[in-house]
Specification:
ATP-binding; ATP hydrolysis activity; alpha/beta; single chain; 8-stranded mixed beta sheet; P-loop_NTPase; Rossmann fold; 8 strands
Length: about 325
């Protein structure tokens, strides 16, 4: 399952996504974690120190390598230079799988050790560099994530967990449609639920599966507020956590010591994500991929690359789990 955590800045989405990642890793689930927020905090939330966090390889800086690998032998793509963030796979493209080793993971992923020999492969978009300041758009960084998600085939019991950018900025690309389940982290405040309303409205026409996780919920009044504001979309809530407070100080206890009420909330998240597997529609997933590629091609991609990017679309190709068995990396 491909799972996104979204929410306004300060809502706790990175904290919740890191707890969910730890929860999956503790069960040894096949797993990749991605920090797609320009404010790179996921590595620290998973226990990395400042030095290790700063030296994580940025996906955005390795985009030429990513494009060249994913292009493979696709005859519709003349060169890797003509690929953009939305380029869809086709016959001959190389695909990514959760558990394999490949040049993209070798260049962009690092293994983060957790409790009891559990670990997770972490990938990050990377922060702005000095050369980006004043001239680069944030979405030029997350384009590498979108391209990888477009070429990733995951099977049952496998997970990609993405900590997204804050607020509704993710709607500036088609990446919001790349997930089986989106968890929106909301505080019990008017500002806390405002992003939910935006997300709900923008996602309405794209079949995005959206559930709200109430965070920093301190009592019945907070719970009643969230229920009144988001209705049946409220999935579960998380309250105060001494474990999280210790983690934020850089001294996380063993994960098994996380409060039971919060561990139960994580179990609810996983059960909900797993249930989304039965509703997968690879035809729609591929169709939406093509839709956003054609929009980007017309608005800026053709002019930037000097190519007709609509010709990259393979009309007979559908990204599907059957490809796990039939298409092998080269």
């Amino acid at each position: 399952m491909k799972i996104a955590f979204v929410g306004k800045g300060g809502s706790g989405k990175t904290t919740l996504s890191s707890l969910f990642i730890r929860h999956l890793a503790a069960d040894r689930a096949p797993l990749i974690a991605v920090d797609a927020d320009i404010n790179q905090h996921l590595g620290a939330a998973l226990g990395l120190d400042e030095v290790d966090t700063a030296t994580l390889p940025a996906m955005g800086a390795r985009l030429p390598l990513i494009k060249d690998y994913l292009r493979g032998a696709n005859p519709r793509i003349a060169s890797a230079e003509t690929m953009i963030k939305t380029t869809p796979p086709g016959n001959g493209s190389r695909l990514l799988r959760i558990t394999e080793d490949n040049p993209v993971y070798e260049a962009c992923a690092r293994t983060v050790a957790l409790d009891d020999d559990a670990s997770v492969r972490l990938m990050v978009t990377g922060p702005f560099t000095d050369s980006d300041l004043g001239v680069a758009c944030y979405h030029s960084k997350v384009g590498a994530v979108e391209l990888c998600l477009n070429h990733l085939v995951d099977g049952p019991g496998e997970y990609v967990v993405v900590d997204m950018t804050a607020g509704s900025d993710s709607f500036a690309s088609g990446m919001f449609t790349r997930f089986d389940m989106t968890f929106l982290v909301a505080e019990p405040t008017r500002k806390g639920v405002s992003v939910y309303r935006q997300y709900k409205e923008y996602a309405r026409d794209f079949g995005v599966a959206l559930k709200v996780v109430g965070n920093k919920v301190q009592g019945q009044d907070d719970l009643d507020f969230l229920r009144a504001e988001v209705g049946e979309d409220l999935l579960t809530t998380v309250g105060h956590s001494d474990w999280v407070r210790a983690m934020e100080k850089g001294r996380p206890p063993r994960f098994e010591l996380l409060e039971e009420v919060n561990r139960q909330a994580l179990r609810v998240l996983r059960e909900t994500a797993d249930a989304s597997y039965e509703r997968r529609d690879w035809q729609r997933y591929t169709r939406q991929m093509v839709h956003f590629h054609l929009k980007n091609a017309e608005s800026w991609g053709n002019a930037k690359t000097g190519a007709d990017l609509a010709a990259q679309v393979d009309p007979a190709f559908v990204l599907d789990e059957a490809l796990l068995a039939t298409a092998q990396p080269v």
